[in-house]
Structure formats: structure tokens, C-alpha cells
Write a sequence for this structure.
């Protein structure tokens, strides 16, 4: 007679709570399973297929015909990626470009975040909005702005010519330099924001204690501020580096013919060559390359989101 | 705080960084009023390109399409993102919670080409298996945008949920409120500002997306970034400068209103405290 111990109305309440929790959990879980996880499994599947002239343009991997169930895995796409130096160069170019842009963001963004965190309270909000505002306008248009500035007849070349610094225009647009600059420009707010959030929570008493004990300000920075803001630096770095590796718009608009980046190659395989299996294989390899940074970012983000206030 | 006056390296960098962020946008605004088509030539002040912009039927219908998709995506993303934030901050021992939190944070950094490609393959397979979607367009873009915008909403809302005083919710439940009613009369008003900022963020993200929409869209649905991209690919166009100026103006006005509200709320809190 165990159930007698719990009065019926209480049991009903418990059931209601459990039911609500299941619904709250179930809806987003099913949505994300269907529209986030399952698609990756499909990319994996199609990457083992081969391209044909059909709609959709690939061979089915799993087949049921003439009473035989067959799974045909074609590793050709991966072998093709490994054998063609274009793809290897594109992966390497992406990582290199994203790395340079991330370093540039960090070198500009960290001092900015530091100054913001040290500013008076009412100014912090203003600076925060000023840093975030560009990212709320249009990404595409902000990248486009550099086309007018960097072009051979663009603003910067005209200015330098007029000043007499140079005699003929320097080619800046359609170079790798322009791509790095564009990525650093477009992603800078995503570097500043997490570092600022981290620095603003820093316990000022630690810094005061250090200076009371005779620590010079530069030493205090290296030994206290910088190590304590590690979490913000990691988050910012990942928020810039990971999407930058797969960037398409910036190399397309600012890059030149020698700019090889994997996002652009994937786009061309998909839209111009209509080779969906190779595009899928490219995506899987890119994902494998980015797995470590993504896991690193996820661990940081999960800790941030679960922390008690 | 230590040396709060005078110049320091970081303060100079802040000013330079802000100049770096704003000068290119400023250039766009100035050149949108240039009578000449060329960037290097200033041919006098003119609003000619604005007139041209408002006569461009293709851009206008793309704007309308983008605004509708952004509205629906942001609204759905706020619902899904809030549910996720609840699971992550409240249901600590629930099975599958870790998987859910991985799935919701991954879109924050996932390269867009991968998300776009994977969703397109899903829609193609779905069309083969269950006959839906027959045509890719607004509905498929809506699903794609909702999925990646939910991640941003979840981050914003979970930050707020962590600060909510749970004892009030518990009191309401002890007094016989159902969980649903407790949510609507206690929790919702407290997290409302986060829901609004999450909605706005999702709205701008959806409005801005080119890559994912290009993958999952069909011939019937052309969003604004697609039109801008195809025109910008050909080079600098003064019409796009005019469009950029309008976008920057609208965002600035909304940001200013947000700043005014936040600052007023903060001041009120200070006088009360």
C-alpha cells in the first residue's frame, strides 16, 4: 500500500510538473534533432555517394532492389580530395587566413575590451552599443564597403596618390591581404564582446592588492589580468576563428584568383559544378578539422550558460 | 580604479578600433550622396541614387520577403530558444540535457556553408520520402533561420534566467499555481527584456543571412542579401550605398532608443537603491 503514503492531489501535481518538463524538453530537442543533427548525418551519407546527372544529382547510398539490400560506400570523393592539391591548398589557405585574422582581432580587440571594462559605468554601455552596432547592420554591406576603399581607383589609393606617397595605385583589392583585413573587420565585435564580459567581472581588489604589494602595472597585467581573462580570450578566438575558416562572402568579394579558401571552393563545387557528393566530403573534412576548436568553444559556452548567477 | 585619467595604450586602441569599425560605414554614407557613379570622383551632392533605389522593384520585393522571413524566424526562435534556456538552466538532472546543450551552442560557430549544405540535403531527402517540401522557398528558409537564431536567443535568455530569483516561483507553486501559470505570471515578466533583445538579435541575424538562405532557397524566394550580393559581385554600385545608408540609419535609431531605455532603467534603479 505504498501509494497511499502520497496523497492523491500531491501525486497529481508531481505528474503535472513531470509532464510540463517533458514538453519543455521535448519540443526543442525534437526540432534540433531533425533540423540540426540529422542533416549532418545526411551530409556524411551523401559524401559517400557519387555524382550523377539526375535530380537530386547523386547516387543513392542505401538501395533496396531485386530482393537485395545494398549499401554502397564510395570513398572516391575523399581520395579525390586528398589527391588534388587544390583542395589541400584550400584547407591550408583557410586555416592560415583565419589564423592571421584572429590574431589581428585579438591584438585590436583585447586593448579595446580592456579600455571599455575600465571606463566609467555609464560609458561602458555606450561603448558596448558602439562596438555591437556594426554587427547589427549588414555583414554583406560592411564587407562591400571595403571594395570601394581598397580598389585600384578606390578611396585609399586616391588618397595615397594625392598625398604623393605612391606614384601608381597599389593592388589591394582581390588579394589575400584584403581577405584578412575584411575578416578582422567583420568579426572584431565578436572578439571584443566576450573579452569585455570577462574583464568587467574581474575582481578589482586583486589588482589593488598587487599594486599595494609593489607590483608594477605591466607585471600586474601579465600575471593577474591576462591569466584571469583566459576564458574570454578563448571564447572570442573561437567565435572568430571557426566561422572564418568556412567564410565564403569575404574571399568571394575581397579575394583574388589566388585566394584559395575552403568555403569558396565548397560553394563552387555545389553551385557551379553541381557535385553534391564532393561538396559534402569537403564539409565533412572541414568539420573534422574544426572539431577540436568547436569542442573547446562548447565546453566554455556550456559552463557560461550553466553557471549560477 | 587605478589610473582613470589621461591617455593609456588601451584607451588609444579603443578610439582607433572604433574609428576602424565606423570609417568604412561612414564612407558608404558619404558616397551614397555622390552624383557620380565612381568612388574616386566627387561630383556633388545628390539624392539621385535613393530615387533609383525606391524604383527598383526587385530590391523592394526582396526587402518585403526578407522582413517577413525575419519576423517569423525571430518569433519562432524566441519560443525554441527560451525552452532550451529553461532546460539548460533549470533541468539539471534531465537525461539528454547535455546533447541538447551541445546542439544549441554548435550553431553559434558552425561555418554557414556547412549548415546551409546540410539543411539543403535534409530538405531534398524529405521531399523524396514524404513529398514535402515540394518547392524550397520561404518555409525552408524559415526553418533554417529559426534553427540557427534559436542558439543566439538561448544564450541571451539563459543569461537572464540565471539571475531570476527562484524563491518567488517556488512560492507561487507552493500556493497552488501550475507550472504553466507560474511561468506566465512570474517568470515571463521578469525575462521579458531578454526575450525582446533576443527577438531583435534573431531578427537582424535572419535579415542579414546570405549563405544559408542561398542553399535552402528555391527560385521562388529571393531575399535581400541575395539581391545585394549578386549586384555587389559586379562591383561598386551607388544604389547599394543608398541601401546601406538606410540600413545603418534604421539600426542606429533602434540602438539609440535601446540605449535611452537601458540608461533610464539603470538610473531609476540607482535612485531606488
Amino acid at each position: 500500500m505504498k501509494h497511499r503514503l502520497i496523497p492523491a492531489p500531491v501525486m497529481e501535481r508531481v505528474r503535472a510538473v513531470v509532464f510540463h518538463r517533458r514538453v519543455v524538453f521535448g519540443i526543442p530537442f525534437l526540432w534540433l534533432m531533425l533540423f540540426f543533427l540529422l542533416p549532418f548525418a545526411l551530409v556524411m551519407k551523401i559524401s559517400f555517394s557519387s555524382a550523377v546527372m539526375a535530380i537530386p544529382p547523386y547516387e543513392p547510398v542505401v538501395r533496396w532492389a531485386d530482393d537485395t539490400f545494398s549499401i554502397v560506400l564510395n570513398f572516391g570523393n575523399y581520395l579525390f580530395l586528398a589527391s588534388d592539391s587544390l583542395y589541400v591548398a584550400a584547407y591550408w589557405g583557410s586555416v592560415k587566413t583565419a589564423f592571421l585574422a584572429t590574431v589581428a582581432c585579438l591584438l585590436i580587440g583585447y586593448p579595446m575590451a580592456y579600455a571599455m571594462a575600465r571606463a566609467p559605468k555609464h560609458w561602458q554601455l555606450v561603448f558596448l552599443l558602439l562596438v555591437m552596432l556594426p554587427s547589427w547592420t549588414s555583414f554583406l554591406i560592411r564587407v562591400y564597403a571595403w571594395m570601394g576603399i581598397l580598389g585600384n581607383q578606390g578611396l585609399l589609393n586616391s588618397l595615397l596618390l594625392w598625398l604623393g606617397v605612391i606614384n601608381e595605385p597599389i593592388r589591394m583589392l582581390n588579394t589575400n591581404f584584403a581577405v584578412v583585413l575584411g575578416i578582422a573587420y567583420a568579426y572584431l565585435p565578436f572578439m571584443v564582446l566576450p573579452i569585455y564580459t570577462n574583464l568587467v567581472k574581474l575582481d578589482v581588489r586583486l589588482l589593488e592588492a598587487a599594486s599595494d604589494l609593489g607590483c608594477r602595472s605591466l607585471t600586474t597585467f601579465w600575471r593577474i589580468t591576462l591569466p584571469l581573462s583566459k576564458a574570454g580570450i578563448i571564447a572570442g578566438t573561437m567565435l572568430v576563428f571557426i566561422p572564418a575558416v568556412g567564410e565564403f562572402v569575404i574571399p568571394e568579394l575581397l579575394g583574388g584568383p589566388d585566394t584559395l579558401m575552403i568555403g569558396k571552393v565548397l560553394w563552387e563545387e555545389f553551385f557551379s559544378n553541381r557535385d553534391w557528393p564532393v561538396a559534402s566530403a569537403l564539409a565533412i573534412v572541414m568539420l573534422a578539422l574544426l572539431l577540436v576548436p568547436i569542442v573547446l568553444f562548447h565546453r566554455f559556452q556550456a559552463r557560461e550558460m550553466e553557471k549560477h548567477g | 580604479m587605478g589610473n582613470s585619467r589621461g591617455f593609456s595604450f588601451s584607451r588609444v586602441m579603443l578610439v582607433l578600433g572604433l574609428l576602424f569599425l565606423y570609417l568604412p560605414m561612414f564612407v558608404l554614407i558619404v558616397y551614397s550622396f555622390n552624383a557620380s557613379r565612381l568612388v574616386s570622383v566627387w561630383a556633388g551632392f545628390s539624392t539621385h541614387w535613393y530615387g533609383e533605389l525606391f524604383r527598383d522593384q526587385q530590391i523592394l520585393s526582396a526587402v518585403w520577403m526578407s522582413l517577413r522571413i525575419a519576423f517569423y524566424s525571430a518569433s519562432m526562435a524566441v519560443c525554441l530558444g527560451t525552452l532550451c534556456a529553461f532546460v539548460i538552466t533549470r533541468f539539471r538532472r534531465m537525461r539528454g540535457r547535455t546533447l541538447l546543450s551541445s546542439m544549441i551552442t554548435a550553431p553559434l560557430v558552425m561555418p554557414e556553408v556547412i549548415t546551409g549544405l546540410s539543411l539543403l540535403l535534409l530538405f531534398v531527402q524529405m521531399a523524396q520520402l514524404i513529398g514535402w517540401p515540394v518547392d524550397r522557398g520561404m518555409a525552408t528558409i524559415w526553418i533554417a533561420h529559426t534553427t540557427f537564431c534559436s542558439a543566439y536567443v538561448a544564450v541571451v535568455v539563459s543569461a537572464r534566467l540565471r539571475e531570476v530569483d527562484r524563491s518567488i516561483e517556488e512560492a507561487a507553486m507552493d500556493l497552488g499555481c501550475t507550472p504553466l501559470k507560474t511561468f506566465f505570471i512570474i517568470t515571463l515578466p521578469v525575462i521579458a527584456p531578454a526575450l525582446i533583445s533576443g527577438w531583435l538579435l534573431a531578427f537582424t541575424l535572419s535579415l542579414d543571412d546570405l549563405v544559408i538562405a542561398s542553399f535552402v532557397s528555391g527560385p521562388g524566394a529571393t531575399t535581400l542579401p541575395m539581391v545585394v550580393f549578386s549586384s555587389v559581385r559586379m562591383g561598386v554600385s551607388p544604389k547599394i550605398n543608398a541601401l546601406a545608408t538606410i540600413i545603418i540609419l534604421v539600426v542606429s535609431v533602434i540602438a539609440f532608443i535601446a540605449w535611452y531605455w537601458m540608461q533610464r532603467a539603470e538610473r531609476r534603479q540607482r535612485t531606488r537603491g
